[in-house]
Amino acid sequence: MAADAGLTRFYRLLSAAAVVGGLVLLWLVWRPATVSIPANVVVTAADTAGFRGYPLGAESAPVEIVEYADYQCPACQDFELVQFPDVKKQLIETGRVRWVYRDYPLDNPHPFARLAAHSAACADDQGRFWPQHALIYSGQGEWSVERDASGTFHDYAERNGLDLAKYDECMQSARHAGRIQASYEIGSRLGVNSTPTFLIGGRLYAGRQSSDALKQLVDSLAPVAAPAP
What we know:
The chain folds into two domains: about 1-30; about 35-220, Glutaredoxin (3-Layer(aba) Sandwich). By secondary structure, it is of the alpha+beta class. Mean pLDDT is about 90; it is low at about 25-30. Helix 4 (about 115-125) runs parallel beside helix 7. A five-stranded mixed sheet has the order 1-3-2-4-5, sandwiched between helices. The termini are far apart. The protein is built from ten helices and five strands; from the N terminus they run ααββαβααααααββα. The longest helix has 29 residues, at about 1-30.
């Protein structure tokens, strides 16, 4: 009897080990592959053809603000979560500002900044840049401490309803590495050296800006007409 009980226990352990092994195998098969986006790539004409950043707002807006930012930069996240909602409501949705987001990844000390930028670029291919952009910034505290952030970005893509096969192919191919590098180089030539930095009316404004400060700048560049008496 004791031998039978021991044999039964052995088979139970063996079955449990097989189940666990099967689950591990499934995870290895289905998990998003690790992705690496190269830096300092040679920028080609195709990388920049027709691309001037990610716009938001009316093309007819009298003022354009270009934000150079890094997805892993805490000050950029703070601006995105605290100030940008008011900027969007007061300036973009009212037609006064055309907002353009451009990547300026600081690879050291932000190893996932370029990967995050590429995730947003792949979402842009499916018309979902701004939703992916929002999730990446709001989740910065989560993915920035991971050993590999690509899985978290894949989860964001799924939450945003992206075609995951197309998203994964885009990420694995590093299709937009040149676009990201081009934005970085353009910013550097303008004099950008920290994030966030804003290009407004031909001048650079470094550091996190408040929505009130940006509104004052816009007012100075394009005053609101006084109502007719």
